[in-house]
Amino acid sequence: MIEAMKIPNADWFDSAFTEQPEQAHSGIVYLIGAGPGDADLITVKGLRYLRRADVVLYDRLASPELLDELAQGTEKVFVGKGPACHTMKQEEINRLLISYAQQGRTVVRLKGGDPFVFGRGGEEALALAQAGIRFEIVPGVSSAISVPAYAGIPVTHRDYVSSVTIVTGHEGHGHDSSPINWEALAKTGGTLVILMGVKGLAQITPRLIAGGLAENIPAAVIQEGTTPRQRLVTGTLADIAQRATVAKISSPAITVIGTVVSLSNALEWYEMAREA
């Protein structure tokens, strides 16, 4: 996170997007959601902007196939982050976006899923706004919804649940001081979708049970969802962490906890489509 970052005042939008004389030749940054993994799930708008980019800064979770859509000569910069392995610090990414735009270039920041759903897109947008750089947000298909769908799990269903909570599991890996109140989340009563939490699942599930969530409630872990490498492991809240370990599930993976997981047996269409 950028040090001493302050949210701009109410006039920031007009000042950032109204072209001033000194900004007449400035570039623009498009923060684009690439979708969950399947290259076909990028939006039409996102693909259009991608094809006109001068430089693309792309993440680990953005489909490599999307880079084939770039115009010849487009500069490609990998800035992906993996578990305990960051190619580039966030502050450096922010500085690069600003620098390229100040050179008058059309910049695409290609991010997995949606830029504003645990994608740090908000931090990047604030950095651009504070630097007076023009930018546009192009929402993407979030993995929190689409990955369960590819596994035959509707995160809401009027006969089962009418709410869904999306939370990151990354911050609480094995730390008692986790800012996430898992015990409180156990009482929400809807579907719980945990992003980036597979490594900490063995610590998370007991806290959910301690908060009152039933041990036998269905649970699933989906690795590399929406891609040909998709793997699905199902079980209950009590045993899903162990099942995921035995199956050697690794990141990127999403955990879904709730009664709707039981529908995957009947609705797991993607596996059947791959076998057809």
Structure characterization notes:
The protein is α/β, with parallel strands linked by helices and 276 residues long. 28% of the residues lie in helices and 20% in strands. It contains ten helices and twelve strands. The strands form three sheets. Strands 3-2-6-1-7 form a five-stranded parallel beta sheet, with helices on both faces. Helix 3 crosses helix 4. The longest helix is centred in the middle third of the chain and has 13 residues. It is globular. 39% of the residues are buried.
Which word captures the global form?
A: globular
Distance between the termini: 46 Å
Could you estimate the helical fraction of the residues in percent?
A: 25-40%
Q: Compute the CA-based radius of gyration.
A: 20 Å
**Largest sheet properties:** 5 strands, parallel
H/E element sequence: HEHEEEEHEHEHEHEHEEHEHH
Number of strands: 12
Strand content bin: 15-25%
Give the count of helical stretches: 10
The low-pLDDT segments are: 1-24, 172-176
User: From the helix content, strand content and strand pairing, which structural class follows?
Assistant: alpha/beta
Strand order of the largest sheet: 3-2-6-1-7
Averaging pLDDT over every residue, what do you get? 89
Structure at a glance:
The chain is of the alpha/beta class. Helices cover 28% and strands 20% of the residues.
Offer a few descriptive terms.
disordered N terminus, 28% helix, 12 strands, alpha/beta, 276 residues, globular, five-stranded mixed sheet
